[in-house]
# Entry
Amino acid sequence: MIFVTVGSTHFDELIKNVIVLKERYPRLEIVCQIGTSNIIPDKCQWFRFKDTLVDEIEEADVIITHGGVTVLQSLAANKKIIAISNTDLADDHQTTFLSTVAEYIHIPWSNDPSDLVKLYDDLASYTFKRSELLSNDLYNELFK
# Structure
């Protein structure tokens, strides 16, 4: 199962590209947390909000996420991720966050939602070592 999360706001461009991914791979099971997005992924299961996403993260094989804390939660759960920064938000902080994480952990990410299908197609070439998440250097960089 692929779990998609946009966080507490909207990320219509990501949801549009999840729909493209589903059209390309119709057999994929995709569950989307769409927040306040205006786009409804009618070929996927979806919901707006839940108190916690722990169950979805645990059940997922792949997590497609915005550039937020779900990145770290997913990596800590040893999940394959694709991260797309929501550049429409104030000061483009998600791009800054993802570029910082990517300096320490090899993750597939982009600030262009239209890259989603290509990132998914290339996902097998990414390896993640959970020990990288625990790096003091990454921790110090994120929380300085």
